[in-house]
Amino acid sequence: MTDLSIRSKGGCSMRTGILGGTFDPIHRGHVEAAKAALEALSLDRVLVLPSGQPPYKRCHAGRQARLDMVKLACDGEKGLVPCDIEINRDGESYTVDTLKALRRLCPEDEFTYIIGADALNSLPKWRGLDEIAQMTSFAVLSRPGWDRQSAEAQAALPGVNVTFTDIEGLPISSGMARTRVAAGEDVSELVGKDVAEYIRSHGLYLCDYTEPEILEKLKKALTVHRYYHTLGVADTAERLSERFGVDSHRARLAGLLHDCAKSMPYGEMRRIVSENVPDTDEQELDSEPVLHAPAGMVVAQRDYGVRDRAILQAIRRHTLGGEDMTAMDALIYVSDFIEPGRRPFPGLEDVRALAEVDIFAAMRACARLTTDYVTSRGQKSHPKTMALL
Ligand code: ATP
Ligand code: MG
Questions:
Q1: How far is 207 from 370, CA to CA, in rounded Å?
Q2: Domains of the chain: which residue ranges?
Q3: CA 68 to centroid of ligand 1, rounded, Å
Q4: What is the assigned CATH class of domain 211-388?
Q5: 141 CB near ligand 1 (under 6 Å)
Q6: What is the homologous superfamily of the domain 13-202 according to CATH?
Q7: Which ligand is nearest to the CA of 140?
Q8: Residue pLDDT, tens place only, 189-224
Q9: What is the 307 CA–ligand 1 centroid distance (Å)?
Q10: Cβ(33) to ligand 1 under 6 A?
Q11: 285 Cβ contact partners less than 8 Å away, ≥ 6 residues apart
Q12: Mind listing the pLDDT tens digit for each residue in 256-283?
């Protein structure tokens, strides 16, 4: 339900700024811009208003998460008021409807819609712009790389009251924050400690897709059997992760994507691995059953937008292993072996028991079983697997 506390009190009129956006995630550029606008435009408050489903932009985090982050960022900032009016409305969000709803809640208020210069070029396309212009004026903030002249030309729209402020936005964007999270970097400097912690603890922005979207893609890419195996690996890796100091969201994502290239034709796997994975040798390139691991790393990066090195490396190493395996590498390697859907084979239960207490011991046990199996068939175990022993 919409929080009605934004309602203006007993007929008193307020000067209310509205900073709308996807806030995916909210960052210091937003907060500093809102505070500067509060001061420069003598506003009583700025409503920080995350959009529900914007018509022209795909959101990476869900509605509730974006609102939660807005609340964290506004906490303790006098005059900044989170507003959930769009988050609680179904369907696509149009500013015209939002302003009408705000008008009903705050009939006496004078509204100023605060907008970054980069967002100006879309203004002529906003649904119901004439009606919008009757309900609010606009105040424009500059953003790095923005050219004032062309922005002023874009803002010259009949009947629309646009003022250019001298407020210089910080060189920060949500896209920048998302990219850094995906690369495994700390984003406290960009978004503040609380929002950074929220992103970490909810596993946001690790790749370009949400889990339901990833599952849809995997369903199309994999056989039914492989798909359920994948879920088993993801669940196992997630369940065991914290015990061995591995971030549970990263472990789950690596588990979900470890076999993402499994159904790719051999020729194509060979090609993308030769082109993109320099540390692959002839023995790997010649072996169809192991090639899906380095190919999976390429596909996870290319088709799912994974940039986190730890996740990519774990996918790359999940069949053969490698030198200096990390806890994450070992976790995915072992989870692939022991997930609940695996058909029973001698030694499996021992490895399962070992994995509950020592992931590296379990990894060595898996490598031993693989090596014994390969040798029994008159083949040579790969040096990368031998290195695990
Ligand atoms: P993305 O990178 O996903 O496009 P963003 O950083 O542009 O995100 P939005 O949620 O799209 O953030 O922005 C909401 C509003 O805040 C827009 O009007 C935008 O122009 C403005 N804004 C965003 N970042 C800044 C900034 N650093 N300085 C000033 N205004 C900003
Ligand atoms: Mg933007």
A1: 32
A2: 13-202, 211-388
A3: 17
A4: mainly alpha
A5: yes
A6: HUPs (3.40.50.620)
A7: 1
A8: 999 999 999 999 999 999 999 899 999 999 999 999
A9: 23
A10: yes
A11: 270, 273, 274, 291
A12: 999 999 999 999 999 999 999 998 999 9
